[in-house]
Amino acid sequence: MKTITEGESAREEFDTHFNMGVAYREMNLLDDAIKEFEAAANSLDSAAHAREMVQCCGMLSTCYLEKGMARSTVRWCQTGLALADISSHESMALRYDMGVAYSLTGETDKALECFGKLFDVDPTYRDVAQRIDGLKSVSQRHGP
Q1: φ/ψ of residue 117, rounded to 5
Q2: How many CA atoms lie within 13 A of 36 on its CB side?
């Protein structure tokens, strides 16, 4: 009989909550998805499981963005970007969500900073160039 270690148990708990979160998100049950992703994030030590935490941060930022909750989106993006062992793809996705959230709250300079960093890495990433142009034209119309 195999004994389950504490690490294996935590990993199973993470997998269960994360997979439920994905299922709820696919059904557009965003509140339920958020609860599951937050439970998944809380089930692991973020330092020891940075990869999994980055996944949770990405899913949470996306869910909150879909709900129009910009502040929560930014918080989860910042949490994910602060983790070690984050891939450039994950970093770009979080930075993009954060830029969209800042643009929703009218924080044009912060949004431009996020999108500008993405543009410097990959000018063809999603619609970054168009977002930068749009934000610049809005800020020029409103003046300094």
Answers
A1: -65, -40
A2: 20
Structure tokens at 25: 């998100």
CB 24 within 8 A of CB 32: yes
Q: What is the dihedral of CA 97, 72, 77, 34, to 10 degrees?
A: -90
The answer to whether domain 6-142 has CATH 1.25.40.10 is: yes
Does 29 have pLDDT greater than 70? yes
Residue 144: helix, strand or coil by DSSP? coil
User: Is the separation of the CB atoms in 57 and 94 below 8 Å?
Assistant: yes
Residue 117 to residues 34, 101, 128: CA-CA distances in angstroms? 28, 15, 10
What distance in Å separates the CA atoms of residue 93 and residue 82, rounded to the nearest whole number? Answer: 14
Euclidean distance between CA atoms 108 and 144, whole angstroms: 12
The 10s digit of each residue's pLDDT in 47-83 is 788 899 999 999 999 999 999 999 999 999 999 999 9
Q: Residue 40 has which token pair? A: 């998944």
